[in-house]
Amino acid sequence: MAECHPVGFQWVMEAKARGATIIHIDPRFTRTSAVADVFVPVRAGSDIAFLGAIINYILTNEKFFREYVVSYTNAATIVSEDFQDADELGGLFSGFDPETGTYDPKSWAYEGMETAAAAGSRVVFGRQPPAHAGGGGDDLGGRGVALPHAEVRRDESLQDPFCVFQILKRHYARYTPEMVEQICGVPAAQFTTVCEAVTANSGRERTTSWVYSVGWTQHSVGVQYIRGAAIIQLLLGNIGRPGGGILALRGHASIQGSTDIPTLFDLLPGYLPMPRAGVHGDLDQYLASIKSDGQKGFWTAADTYMVSLLKAWWGEAATQDNDFGFGWLPRISGDHSNYQTIVDMLDDKVEGYFLLGQNPAVGSANGKMQRLAMSHLKWLVVRDLNMIESATFWKDGPEIATGEMRSENVGTEVFFLPAAAHTEKDGTFTQTQRLLQWHHKAVEPPGDCRSELHFFYHLGRLLRQRLATSPLERDEPLRRLAWDYPLLGGDEPDAEAVLREINGRHLSGEKAGRMLNGFVEMQADGSTAGGCWIYTGVYSDGVNQSARRKPGSEQSWVAPEWAWAWPMNRRILYNRASADPAGNPWSARKAYVWWDEAAGKWTGHDVPDFPVNKPPSFRPAPGTGGPDGLAGDDPFIMQADGKGWLYAPSGLLDGPLPVHYEPVESPVRNALHPQQANPTREMFPRNENLTSPSPPQPGADVFPYIVTTYRLTEHHTAGGMSRWSPYLAELQPEFFCEVSPELAAERSLEHLGWATIVSARTAIEARVLVTDRVTPLIVGGRTIHQIGLPYHWGVGGGGAIVSGDSANDVMGVALDANVHIQESKAASCDIQPGRRPTGAALPRYVEAYRRRAGLSIETGTTRVTPPEDRA
Predict the structure, then answer these.
(1) Are residues 648 and 103 in contact, defined by beta-carbon separation less than 8 angstroms?
(2) How far is residue 437's CA from residue 435's CA, in Å, rounded to a whole number?
(3) Residues 6 or more apart from 570 whose CB is under 8 A from it?
(4) What are the residues whose beta carbons fall under 8 Å from the beta carbon of 702, sequence distance 6 or more?
(5) Which of 150, 362, 616, 752 gives 294 a disulfide partner, CB atoms 3.0 to 4.6 angstroms apart?
């Protein structure tokens, strides 16, 4: 966090000054480690074993917050006796189909409850899960799984062998400090110190928070990493309370905003799921897939969110008679995620591509595959501050030098359109706390640089002009768009007008034209419009709430008048959990939101995340759905049962509980289960994306080391904003690798000399930094070395002050099945002293490694570990 998010890290340092304990768990000693109270070096890709052992420690030593756990989680809920845990089936849960590589989650359900019908079938490896499988992955958007019947059997003594609590205890019983030492390389005594610190700082009087970034997400089990932390926090009572939570650090200023609105293929604004081809023929079918009878919480109002969105997009053209224009929405028909799109490019299925502040030639896993894919396009639009490598790969990329790509054979027409920086345009940043902060234009953009808002508004305007008289039905969605944004001082659209559209307004009645003050004002009859329901309120009372800047000294410690947080300016989600079941603060020290009996409403330091007039004693009639179905002690108002889920009965594609699997490429065998890697992982077996073998497969010793990637404070992601700056380039001028003194001795690497790092994909060269910041770990009785690579450099590009090989070139593409994120934080490699070969000699050098390892397209892609390897 100190290295990659230094502005936010100042608050960690302020907490430390007030006595907070900082524990840093990382493969490398970083700037964060330097100021931490405890630094724990860990093997990249082994975190679920670490987290699972903390869960086991909490349960075994009865450190869990019993009243919170019983009242606010599904610990007491009874699960179907058909469920079989991973321990019983060698690392697989019940319902796994080895032919499709998917789970049928029917047996994971609560007792007596069928799983929710899927909103559509997720395509994995080109095959589909069973038609009756519970929704998951691309099906769900941001909502919790819709449970068909909200009434479930519970045992609040937590003794029933099939209750979630007992399943959790059995599942993590083998995750011991000794197992952590064997898998993670963390000494048992040091691990126990972490457990003691975390549990001692949790309970009525104290809370602990977990902070993560892409070191957790970029794995083939990335979603389950976060689930592991969520289970810990729920057991300790650290969700919905001040000083608790799980904090996701974003890589840019508005990554949160780009998922809220969104830029993901399977989401509509506000985490509504995209409709599916052949499944959602009309609006009623779509809405039926989001909510069900008896489902609790605010997702049951999805009809108001969706209709208001359609009215914002198509205005008067969206009427009840035409389903409010629902038929004009595009449909998804499978996996249209980034890496599948890259593979489709290679197969000549994609003609055009927009890159907006993205530099996949450097910043995405398997950079060579990215560059080769872009060479198959007919056209490519690149919008960036500088002439990045993704705009010039066709003339100066690494494959030009090796002869694997010839400029005259590349048919891709590249359009480079210079972009305005954030200082050169108005708009908002939405950061990890969901805080929308308005930024004002400071200077005019130079030359031909234009904002994204300018680009897309005028692109839409020109397309609509061209199609104005088109008789084709396919062009109707564009022709019907409400595209009437006012222009400021020339041809720049008014960003505040867009924010007002996102907020939403009343369209009829005495309030016609007024801004909506909250999403609860949205209607499903077409009388309201709003571009993103969770952002409704950012322009409440006709005021740009995101532009508020009241100093902290002039308001409460929660600072509700600094900018605006979605939803409803609420600074902590699920904050009903900050009070006990009776509505009283768990302690005076941690008081945040509580029930005011005299006033008959919830009150406190924050906007209550709960129906404000619902008393703690309220119990709904059986079968009641929606917000009215929430009991007075159901704090998790977006979940179908109002509870925090220690166990996920549906909604995940790779299991109801986190399980330790090895990364797809690993020099280590799975010590917990015969199943080596996540059986549901997405693989793209092809010559451009070969995978190295893992033990006990022959050839695993050819790539004996672990390689991981990371960022530096002095550079920014793929370098487009920093390698063109002389001040930053001077601070970190050369691409380097971090190796331990022990590995340097083993491979004859010289400090500040050169090294060649080789994987199944390619070989790159880097300067050698011999440092104690990377520690050899004893894993399974043998020494495991890890190599650290910052990923900011690239070859090519116009005008970059510094360049170097790209760390991401050595990483393969294997994905988490739930969210399609790549595993770029743990892979297998070799390292040798000296510079890599150049020209045509480089692919020959890599091919020699492949032959030694016996690589083929099938290597490492088997879903289920073969019987002969499961001993």
Answers:
(1) no
(2) 6
(3) 606, 607, 609
(4) 692, 830, 849, 852, 853
(5) 150
Helix (H, G, I), strand (E, B) or coil at 198: helix
For residue 127, give the 3-state DSSP assignment.
strand
pLDDT beneath 70, residues of the chain: 114-150, 870-871
What is the C-alpha separation between 625 and 607, in angstroms, rounded?
Answer: 23
Q: Are 672 and 660 in contact (CB under 8 A)?
A: yes
The pLDDT of residue 330 is: 94
The residue among 851, 841, 849, 827 whose CA lies nearest residue 219 is 827
- Pull the structure tokens for residue 733: 């001028």
**pLDDT at site 296:** 85
**DSSP per-residue letters across 698-760:** TTGGGS-EEEEEE--TTS-TTTTTTTT-HHHHHHS-S-EEEE-HHHHHHHTPPTTSEEEEE-S
pLDDT digits (tens, 9 = 90+) for 674-701: 999 999 999 999 999 999 999 999 999 9
Single-letter amino acid, residue 87: D
* DSSP reduced 3-state for 435: strand
Residues 331, 337, 342, 348, Cα dihedral to 10°: -20
263, two tokens: 């830029």
Quickly list H helices, 185-301: 188-200, 214-217, 222-236, 255-260, 283-290
Q: Are 667 and 770 in contact (CB under 8 A)?
A: no
599: Cβ contacts below 8 Å, ≥ 6 apart: none
**How many Å apart are CA 751 and CA 530, to the nearest integer?**
58
User: Smallest Cα–Cα separation from 859: which of 806, 819, 824, 812?
Assistant: 812
DSSP 585-606: BS-STT--EEEETTTTEEEESS
Structure tokens at 774: 């990377």
* Pairwise CA distance, residues 334 & 314, whole Å: 26
Report the distance separating Cα 772 and Cα 225, nearest Å.
Answer: 27
What pLDDT shows up at residue 130? 40
pLDDT at 147: 64
Q: What is the pLDDT of residue 492?
A: 96
Nearest Cα to Cα of residue 820 among 417, 266, 392: 266
Peptide bond into 129 cis (omega under 30): no
Q: Tell me which residue of 313, 262, 297, 304 sits closest to 283, measured CA to CA.
A: 304
User: If you count DSSP H runs as helices and E runs as strands, how many of each does the chain have, helices first?
Assistant: 23, 30
Q: Cα dist. 730→7, 600, 712, 769 in Å?
A: 22, 62, 13, 17
Output the pLDDT for position 292: 75
Query: Which helix H or strand E contains 456, and what residues bound it?
Result: helix 452-466
